[in-house]
Specification:
Helices cover about 45% and strands about 15% of the residues. It is α/β, with parallel strands linked by helices. The strands form three sheets. An eight-stranded parallel beta sheet has the order 1-12-9-8-5-4-3-2. It has a two-stranded antiparallel sheet with strand order 6-7. The protein has a two-stranded antiparallel ribbon with strand order 10-11.
């Protein structure tokens, strides 16, 4: 990790390059991610593969590594027979693996995925789980506390589909002593739950623990507009790491469509995102090391 400056100070100095999709890099390495735990399974079964995936992004120029804890929850691991102590150890391991791959010079963002990621049924792209803000806060708090204690530079509250869950997450992280970024997944200029983006970003306004706001796991074309709204509402730096633009066909279990965010498109998109206020720029699903390298080259 990088203790000489705070993460917020690093953002003030200019754009930081995030990594890309962990799952697609793991698949490139030959890993099977068909399990309901997705890449989180490898924390227990093949941690070296996660370390290798992080290292691939470091070689590509990523300055911020997002941990493999997105789908790592006490409930999810309990279904696999792991007790609370074992799950705590795996959550800590996710931070250690990223820190080791960064070789002490990069930043580590501990991923806190939405409640829907634990369900493993795609509901993180719908939100509205039928739970109250207080119930969602209780779900998130235990792993937030463990991840924060493991010593990351920032917590990535990511792929959030619903303003209510964003409120719950911000309650859960309050007082943990680690800065956070808040990143919604959006579609059609609204949250995945259909809420107005200005209202959704307003939950982070005035919260000094939140050092960046933005979007991830969305179409690249959605990003600039959402970043503009986020900046207008909160005045905070932007974070953006969309998908490649391809779409998952659940029936055929294959990716469809062309790539809208690859190495060729990265420089132009990154310039537009920076102009819209982004200071953290990277990729999510299907965005690999080649695109991350192009981002680093664009920034110079």
């Amino acid at each position: 990790m990088a203790p000489a400056r705070t993460f917020a100070q690093a953002l003030a100095d200019g754009v930081l390059v995030l990594d890309g999709g962990l799952s697609n890099q793991l698949e490139t390495q030959g890993c099977d991610l068909t399990d309901a735990l997705w890449s989180a399974r490898l924390l227990a079964d093949a941690p070296a593969q996660i370390g290798a995936a992080h290292a691939a992004y470091v070689r590509a120029g990523a300055e911020v590594l997002i941990t493999s804890s997105y789908q790592a929850t006490y409930e999810g691991f309990a279904r696999r027979g792991l007790d609370g102590a074992a799950t705590t150890a795996l959550l800590r391991r996710s931070v250690t693996l990223a820190a080791e791959a960064g070789r002490g010079s990069g930043w580590v963002a501990a991923s806190v995925g939405p409640y829907g990621a634990m369900l493993a049924d795609g509901s993180e792209y719908r939100g509205r789980y039928g739970l109250s803000v207080r119930e969602l806060e209780r779900f998130h708090r235990p792993r937030v506390e463990v991840l924060a204690a493991a010593g990351p530079d920032v917590l990535a509250l990511e792929t959030v589909p619903d303003a209510d869950e964003a409120e719950a997450l911000l309650r859960a992280v309050a007082g943990c002593g680690v800065p956070v970024w808040l990143s919604y997944t959006v579609a059609g200029g609204r949250t995945r739950a259909g809420q107005d983006l200005a209202d959704a970003f307003a939950v982070a306004a005035g919260n000094d623990q939140v050092v960046a706001v933005g979007v991830n796991c969305c179409e690249p074309a959605e990003a600039a507009g959402a970043l503009t709204v986020a900046a207008e509402v909160t005045g905070k730096p932007g974070v953006v790491y969309p998908n490649s633009g391809e779409r998952w066909d659940a029936t055929t279990r294959a990716w469809r469509g062309g790539t809208a965010f690859g190495p060729a498109e990265a420089p132009g998109l990154a310039a537009a995102w920076e102009a819209a206020g982004a200071r953290l720029i990277g990729g999510c699903c299907r965005v690999g090391p080649g695109t991350i390298a192009a981002l680093g080259g664009w920034r110079g």
